[in-house]
Specification:
single chain; mainly alpha; about 80% helix
Length: about 100
């Protein structure tokens, strides 16, 4: 189940975040003190929200090298999806 959600997170991070919330509520609640950050993360940076919760739970905290690396990669993927969609909108369509 864990591997399935991890693969789902790469393609559909918002769906994976909802599934993680429903099936393992403690995974998100242990990483975040209140629900405002995960809700904002769901809207703006869903993969980063999942990566932070994963790093907090499995990597022994965000201060470890592996945790920071996972979070940086997630931020780049999240920002890249926004930049990629903006680039495709600005190109003129050829007839």
């Amino acid at each position: 189940m864990c591997c399935l959600i991890a693969l789902l997170a790469l393609g559909f991070p918002r769906v994976a975040l909802v599934l993680v919330w429903f099936f393992d509520h403690t995974f998100i609640s242990n990483a975040y003190n209140n629900m405002a950050i995960p809700i904002l993360g769901f809207i703006f940076l869903p993969l980063t929200t999942l990566a932070y919760a994963w790093a907090h739970t499995f990597e022994g905290g965000v201060d470890s090298g592996g945790g920071v690396l996972v979070i940086v990669i997630a931020v780049l993927l999240d920002v890249g999806t926004y930049g990629g969609s903006a680039t495709s909108r600005s190109r003129p369509q050829s007839a």
